[in-house]
Amino acid sequence: MWVTGNMEKESVPTNCRGLREDGSYACKSKKVMVSTLEGIVTIFNEEVYIPSDDTFIIVEGARYLIERLAERRFTLVEIGCGTGYVTISVLKNVLNKDLLNVYAVLIDISPCAVDSASKSVKVNELDTYVDIVQCDSASCLRGESMKLILFNPPYLPVEDYGGWLAKSWSGGREGLVVWNEFFDDSLRVCGRDCVIVFVISSLQNLGKVLQRLLSNCKCVEILVCESFFYETVCSASCRVGEAN
């Protein structure tokens, strides 16, 4: 499904409007690969960003935050879901604690990622709890609709848009073009007392990131950090709304 427009501006969902002329509705890659990490099976092709160090950092941060929140009901969205590994890991952790009132929306602009996430969610037997949508950032969601928002955006300060895989790591100028888009949409779809969990990197312009966080978040917390020889990657949270 490709969803266009901003549902907040329209009174009804735009839903499916047919096959796009540029062919971006369908994934052209036919090669299928399977991987198992920490009991989670992912199905993907060469055009999908596979779980890596930054993936595990946001998973650890999200798990830590959820345990502290002690919530028994979740509506969450992952923007730029890739294989779906992050949400699958979070859901498995939540469901293992008998928190059954859970609903998740996985979003990606890439048809290859949407196909991968759909298959991965199904093989992990979580399709009862998840809907998957192909759209640009969270433009397909109504405002103030989510409790928890996750995103691990492309953050490398490069502009390489040659294919779907290149788009999955190309963050644009200062590594902030996609990050800003995801953060803006996260703020829009945040419901009452909402938390946004995201990835930041030392390769980005962190001064500008900090300015945005201080201007929009009631509380900012660095959750998990790991240093590599070329960068430091952290997961962080931004609480929005009526937080204490």
TrEMBL record:
Highest rank taxon of the organism: Archaea
First and last residue of the signal peptide: none
GO molecular function: nucleic acid binding; protein methyltransferase activity; S-adenosylmethionine-dependent methyltransferase activity
A Pfam family of this chain: MTS
Entry annotated with the keyword Manganese: no
Methyltransferase small domain boundaries: 60-220
SUPFAM superfamilies: S-adenosyl-L-methionine-dependent methyltransferases
GO-annotated cellular components: eRF1 methyltransferase complex
UniProt entry tagged with the keyword Transferase: yes
Record's keyword terms, sorted: Methyltransferase, S-adenosyl-L-methionine, Transferase
A biological-process GO annotation: methylation
Xref: PANTHER family: METHYLTRANSFERASE N6AMT1
Protein family per UniProt: Belongs to the eukaryotic/archaeal PrmC-related family.
Protein name: Methyltransferase small domain-containing protein
Organism from which the protein derives: Ignisphaera aggregans
Taxon lineage: Archaea, Thermoproteota, Thermoprotei, Desulfurococcales, Desulfurococcaceae
